[in-house]
Design brief:
The protein is α/β, with parallel strands linked by helices and 249 residues long. It has a single domain, classed as NAD(P)-binding Rossmann-like Domain (Rossmann fold). It binds NADP nicotinamide-adenine-dinucleotide phosphate (NAP). Its EC number is 1.-.-.-.
């Protein structure tokens, strides 16, 4: 069977669980070689084994810009380039400002914003180079959130701030890279059942409280990402908002 991404190389950050795990599987099922980035090596190794020969593990903390650049450069060197970057790694807490721990706020900024900046900065030259090659196109897809479009409640303060920031960054990047045929897309999930929402961490976004309206599965978001990166080279899907059907905010 031929896949729509045969011969391509994709980097997925936050591939050790949730949306990143599902996205790596979905991209590999389309024929992409997938470079799996996250901190939990054991989870990445399990996933790489399940995917098979077309996956490789990179134990990387996205807040460490030097480590990110080293890993991105090694992927490009080993596989002749990078065609797809999925900026997915993320973290969230929902404490109101009067109770919040400043270190949690800093972690959100470091992972959700600075991590996206470090990874994109390291990959952008490789993506431009890939787009000028035979395939003629390359993609950056960043996983934002409904909270990147609207402030969903007082507790979403810093999480929403980081996601609004990556939205602004993505739009500027889109304007810069469009002439080079590097497409820039933003995916904005509503509530998805993942470790971020279902492990009962205090003041994390909570999928269980929303069970009556249903929640998305990680595969729903992976589908959107595969859709974006498999469009014909003339077509750029720049923004996709995906909510559970009854989610109103
Ligand atoms: N679940 C939702 O309802 C929802 C809704 C909207 C948007 N999102 C966004 O979707 C993305 C994925 O989240 P998820 O829901 O799939 O949650 P998840 O299952 O908790 O996955 C988060 C991923 O990010 C990685 N990560 C966290 N900090 C990292 C760091 N410093 N360096 C490298 N990797 C790091 C984690 O891997 P390690 O711990 O192994 O490093 C994990 O693979 C996030 O950007 C999140 O904001 C989620």
């Amino acid at each position: 069977m031929t896949g729509r991404l045969d011969g391509t190389t994709a980097v997925v950050t936050g591939a050790s669980s949730g949306i990143g795990n599902a996205t790596a599987r979905a991209l590999a099922a389309e024929g992409a070689r997938v470079a799996l980035f996250a901190r939990r090596r054991d989870k990445l190794e399990d996933l790489a084994r399940e995917i098979g020969g077309h996956a490789e593990v990179h134990e990387v903390d996205v807040t460490d810009a030097d480590a990110v650049r080293e890993a991105i450069d090694s992927v490009a060197r080993d596989h002749g380039g990078i065609d797809v970057l999925v900026n997915n790694a993320g973290y969230g807490t929902m404490d109101p400002a009067s109770e919040a721990d400043l270190s949690e706020w800093r972690t959100m900024v470091d992972v959700n914003l600075n991590g996206v900046l470090a990874t994109t900065h390291a990959a952008v030259g490789h993506l431009s180079k890939a787009a000028s090659g035979a395939r003629g196109i390359a993609d950056v897809v960043t996983v934002s959130s409904v909270a990147g479009r609207t402030v969903t409640g007082p507790g979403s303060n810093v999480y929403a701030a980081t996601k609004h920031a990556v939205g602004a960054f993505s739009e500027a990047l889109r304007q810069e890279l469009a002439p080079q045929h590097v497409r820039v897309g933003l995916v904005e999930p509503g509530l998805v059942d993942t470790e971020l929402t279902n492990t009962g961490r205090q003041n994390a976004p909570d999928a269980s409280s929303a069970s009556e309206m249903g929640v998305l599965e990680a595969d729903d978001i992976a589908d959107a990402i595969v859709y974006i990166v498999t469009r014909p080279p003339r077509t750029a899907i720049n923004e996709v908002l995906v909510r559970p059907v009854e989610q109103t905010r």
